[in-house]
Amino acid sequence: DAEITQSPRHKITETGRQVTLACHQTWNHNNMFWYRQDLGHGLRLIHYSYGVQDTNKGEVSDGYSVSRSNTEDLPLTLESAASSQTSVYFCASSEGQSGAAEQYFGPGTRLTVT
Amino acid sequence: AQTVTQSQPEMSVQEAETVTLSCTYDTSESNYYLFWYKQPPSRQMILVIRQEAYKQQNATENRFSVNFQKAAKSFSLKISDSQLGDTAMYFCAFKAAGNKLTFGGGTRVLVKP
User: Fold this and answer.
1) Which of A37, A46, A57, A109 is most worth mutating to test chain B (most B CB atoms within 10 A of its CB)?
2) Is B85 helix (H, G, I), strand (E, B) or coil?
3) Residue A108, by phi and psi: left (phi above 0), alpha (psi -120 to 50) or beta?
């Protein structure tokens, strides 16, 4: 069965370190998204991609970067981790341009920056 | 930019009873989609129901139904015959052009036996 996976599921890192969170989907979806979830804010969009070599900034992109070298993967990099980036991170994917298309979410990565 | 507001941080309901979650949104778009997602303690995001703005008929999925009031920009979720497995966070979400979702802050629902 097709799926979307994230790794690691939990990560603790120190302030100032570079961290990369992996997202891999086997749906062959063109669209991929990264969100962060904080208490009281729901999920907020960090970056998104509509295809290989395409990346776009979302609502809360400062301090994060992504690259899309193939259809299956969209890794999220925190260039210099800050305590404000302690959060739960979700990756999602969807197919096509239809607004009705469902976004499928990964299981999430809980990141703690100490 | 679109905004989505869920004004009820927490709600509790007795098993087998009905609970209604409210959601309002603000947009200048004419064509858009609205969603309710469920997030149980496992953290997995699960799509519950979706509504297309150009459809006047309210969407229904088994025990879940919505009341979509386009003029009022309101999109409430009704859970009928509540079950213990319905205990979760529920998020209202909006999508217009570009496939990007904008989420509300969530409502925690506790179903009591």
Assistant:
1) A37
2) helix
3) left
Q: Tell me the DSSP string of A36-94.
A: EEETTTEEEEEEEEEETTEEEE-TT-TTEEE--SSSSB--EEESS--GGG-EEEEEEEE
Locate tokens 């993967």: which residue? A73
Tokens of A47: 């970056």
Residues 6+ away with beta carbon under 8 Å from B56: none
Task: Render pLDDT for B4-55 as a digit per residue (tens, 0 to 9).
Answer: 999 999 999 999 999 999 999 999 888 899 999 999 999 999 999 999 998 8
Nearest by CB to A97, which of B99, B100, B105? B99
Backbone φ, ψ for residue A55 (5° rounding): -140, 150
CB contact under 8 A, B95 and A48: no
Calculate the alpha carbon distances from B19 to A104, B32, B87, B110 in Å: 26, 26, 12, 10
